[in-house]
Amino acid sequence: MHRTILIGMVLALAAAAAPAADADLRWLQPQGAELAAKAALEACGYQNVRNLTRDPVGNWAAEAERGGVEIAVVLQINGEIAEE
């Protein structure tokens, strides 16, 4: 429950910051969202988060490590994390 709230807060902050960006700085928005997704995964104990990709719905897929094991993870739009 707390993890979902934390992830939701990180994603909400990233979304709130994006519209405030000047039109000339739109290229920063995807990077900011990617950094927020990576931070959310790291806050939940995943390390070495890499190869972040976003699907059309807004879910983030990545490769990460947890407990020394490499795992494929998905940060869903609702803030939940699924391991694949």
How would you describe this protein?
This protein has two helices and four strands; from the N terminus they run H-H-E-E-E-E. The protein is α+β, with helices and mostly antiparallel strands. It has one domain: Nuclear Transport Factor 2, Chain: A (Roll). Strands 1-2-3-4 form a four-stranded antiparallel beta sheet, covered by helices on one side. A hairpin with a 2-residue loop joins strand 2 and strand 3. Helix 1 packs antiparallel against helix 2. The radius of gyration is 13 Å and the shape is globular.
Which CATH class is shown?
Alpha Beta
Q: What is the strand content?
A: 25-35%
First CA to last CA: what distance? 20 Å
Domains (count):
1
- The tally of helices reads 2
Category by helix and strand content = alpha+beta
Name the shape in a single word.
Answer: globular
| Major beta sheet, strand line-up | 1-2-3-4
The largest pleated sheet is described as: 4 strands, antiparallel
Q: Name the helicity range.
A: 40-55%
The CATH topology? Nuclear Transport Factor 2, Chain: A
SSE pattern, N- to C-terminal? HHEEEE
